[in-house]
Each structure stands twice: as structure tokens, then as C-alpha cells.
Design brief:
Serine Threonine Protein Phosphatase 5, Tetratricopeptide repeat; about 300 residues; SH3 type barrels; 5 strands; about 55% helix; five-stranded antiparallel sheet
Length: about 300
């Protein structure tokens, strides 16, 4: 399948924080790196930290120690849920489930119905094309069923189940870069960013002009505290997609944490331009305020 259902960015740069109390913390990774930020979410597997306006996930298995200030810092501005597929609604999920059962014609009908309501929805359009291709035999039915089954699990945030399904699918088509993209995203959400990096590297080898793969590769490297390689991946993503503000802002954040303040200013300034052009003044304003904190050459 040459088409792909789009997953929301794993670590969107300068996103709106989750609602609730935020706590100042210093996180010491096992690699020796220290992270200063504000914890906005904690689970038994990871902590989510606000670092200069970016919501970052760090897996506990990579953390040596957390020094936390239990005083609330501020109330967040809103709530953002960044898991699952970038689509919603019963029609989308119903269409995925039908396709996962091999009912491609019925699935295509549901996708069309959804597009009548929201014709601009990317995943509905891609899902329709995928269902039609499977129904006409352009792709093997058994392979298509696995892809849709994995996608249905991802839509329900059942990433462990999705991971196993996509592993099965990759045996049928080991040259499909999209499968390594899905495997990378699923691995990240099951708590294995290191494995996600390996899957996404393979995807980049198969599809070297794919900015989404490089972006997600950079996101996972970032979450591991590997800022130098994150910068390299995100620079490639920015070259391939120069008008993506999320890429530029995360590149700027990565460069900042890697100590490359010149690249950080350049990338974040570019992100401001993009967000202002797209009339997203809130994000542009957040980044502009952070730019004031970046050291300038004397």
C-alpha cells in the first residue's frame, strides 16, 4: 500500500499543555543528561514534561532520578490528546473495522459517507483509497486486512496489539516503508523508543524522501535525550517539508538542548513565520517569547 493513515505527532513542539497542576522538576537520565522542566503527567511507564513549551515524554526506564518541586507552577491553558489516528468519529472507526474484516466495499461506503460530512479529512480520503485498492485487487486482500486491523488498533490506542499485527504484515511486504512507520509509532507508545528508532531508520532507508518518517525518528531520538541525532533527523525533515511549523519548532528545541543556539534561533524563527502565516498566533507567540531566552553571541 502506497497510502498511509496519518498519526498525530508523537511530541508536538510547543503544544498546549494538558490541564491540571504542573510541577517543576529536574530529571536525570541514565545517559547523564539533565532535563529541567515541569511535569504535567506521570504514569508507571513514563513522565510527560513541559520543556520550554514542548510536551515531552520520557520513559522511566531511561531515567535515573527525578528531583521534583511539589508546588503547582501554573494552570495549563487547555487539554490536548495526542494519541491515536488524526481522525475521529464513528464513521471512521466503523470503516476501519469493516476493512479489517475484509469487507472493503462496505468500508469504502463508510469512508465516502464520512467525506460527505468532512471532505477535508486526510485520513478519510486515504482510507477510502486504501479500501478501494484492496477491493479491486491492487493489493493482496490478506495484507490489506492486516494493515486495516493494525490501523483500527491504533485508532483505539491499542498499540501493543497494533505492533503485533504490523509485525505480521511486514512479513508479507518487507519493502513497505509505511509499515515501519506504523511499527515505529506503535513501539514508541508501548514504551520502546529505542526499537522505534530502529524501525523508523528502516523506513527512512526505504523512503528517503518522507518527512513524516524523519520527523517521527527525530521525535523518538529526542525522547531518548539523543539531541544530536534528533537534530540531524529533524533537519532532514525540515529540508523535505520546509513549511511545517511543528518540524521547525521541534528542530529548534532539539538544537537548543544540544547547545546549538544559532540553529535553534534560526529554526524557531522559521517556525514563528510559518505559524503566523497560518494564522496560529498563539503558537507563534509562545515561540517568540522563548526566543528571547536563547543566548545570543557577544
Amino acid at each position: 500500500m502506497s497510502h498511509r493513515l496519518r498519526i498525530l505527532p508523537l511530541i508536538p513542539a510547543f503544544l498546549v499543555l494538558c490541564s491540571g497542576d504542573v510541577f517543576a522538576a529536574r530529571i536525570i537520565l541514565k545517559s547523564g543528561k539533565e532535563i529541567n522542566g515541569r511535569i504535567v503527567e506521570k504514569t508507571q511507564d513514563y513522565v510527560k514534561v513541559d520543556i520550554n513549551g514542548s510536551g515531552i515524554y520520557y520513559q522511566l526506564k531511561y531515567i535515573k532520578n527525578i528531583l521534583e518541586d511539589d508546588r503547582p507552577a501554573e494552570e495549563a491553558a487547555g487539554k490536548t490528546d495526542k494519541g491515536g489516528l488524526d481522525s475521529g468519529g464513528d464513521l471512521f472507526r466503523s470503516a476501519l473495522e469493516l476493512a479489517a474484516e475484509g469487507k472493503f466495499e462496505e468500508s469504502a461506503a463508510r469512508f465516502r459517507e464520512g467525506l460527505q460530512e468532512t471532505p477535508e479529512d486526510y485520513n478519510l480520503r486515504e482510507g477510502l483509497t486504501m479500501a478501494e485498492d484492496a477491493g479491486t485487487g491492487k493489493v493482496p486482500a490478506d495484507y490489506a486486512v492486516l494493515v486495516f486491523r493494525g490501523a483500527a488498533n491504533m485508532a483505539d490506542k491499542k498499540y501493543a496489539e497494533a505492533l503485533e499485527v504490523f509485525k505480521e504484515a511486514v512479513h508479507l511486504n518487507p519493502q513497505d516503508a509505511n509499515l515501519y512507520y506504523y511499527l515505529g509509532v506503535s513501539s514508541y507508545f508501548t514504551g520502546d523508543a529505542s526499537q522505534a528508532v530502529e524501525y523508523l531508520k528502516k523506513g527512512a532507508e526505504l523512503s528517503p524522501a518522507d518527512p513524516e518518517i524523519y520527523f517521527n525518528l527525530g521525535v523518538n531520538q529526542f525522547s531518548l535525550g539523543d539531541y544530536k541525532n534528533a537534530v540531524a533527523s529533524l533537519k532532514k525533515a525540515a529540508e523535505l517539508s520546509p513549511d511545517d511549523g511543528e518540524i521547525s519548532s521541534l528542530l529548534g528545541t532539539s538544537a537548543y538542548l544540544d547547545g546549538d543556539f544559532a540553529l535553534s534561533r534560526q529554526s524557531l524563527s522559521r517556525a514563528v513565520e510559518i505559524f503566523e502565516k497560518n494564522r496560529n498566533g498563539e503558537k507563534a507567540g509562545e515561540i517568540r517569547e522563548f526566543l528571547k531566552k536563547i543566548p545570543t553571541p557577544e
